[in-house]
Amino acid sequence: MPYVDGFVLAVPKDKIEAYKALARTACAVWMEHGALDYIECIGDDVPFGELTSFPRAVMAKEDEVVVFSWIIYRDRETRDAVNKKVMADARLKGGDMPFDGKRMIYGGFTTLLQAHSP
């Protein structure tokens, strides 16, 4: 079963275009180095919950939007090898990040169940 890296972060609304540019570059880099899929989603229906929610998890401010993304790999071994290459790729070095990386949530996940529509 595939291995998945997942991410949740808050991006200032005035930096969405910069984030989109970064996402396009990151997508190209991950795919070139062996990821199977790369998905970036901008929050559209992400309510602020009373106890927990995506906005609370990343301490999103009024002027920020929540981004939810994931990358799919063949397996954990492939993920580790791909990420090592990605971290060394010059295309992702330097420059200002259009979000606060300290508030990003991320992790690697083993697939429990997978289904596809025909």
Automatic annotation (TrEMBL):
Pfam families: DUF1428. Gene3D superfamilies: 3.30.70.100. This is DUF1428 domain-containing protein.
